[in-house]
Task: structure prediction
Amino acid sequence: MIRTQIQLPDTLYQEIRRVAKSQEWSIAEVVRRGAEMLVRSYPNFKAENSEAWVFPPPVSSKLLVSDPNAIRSLISEDLEGYSN
Result:
């Protein structure tokens, strides 16, 4: 294991202490587990021998509304919720 030193804002440190106490863990364990969660959130996509990402094929679907005026009306209704 590698030993390191970090600086934390006081409020974050207090929250880490709170979690450590409630879980009966050390502060180091809380930081390790937090780092593990963060690393899992950012997977390594630059693996060797990987092909370049391409867009998936379009989803095939059937349009349920065939009348262009009805479509225009539905779109207008949909957009009304965004005009705040």
Remarks:
- The chain has a mean pLDDT of 83.
- The chain is about 50% helix and 0% strand.
- Helices lie at 10-23, 27-41, 68-80.
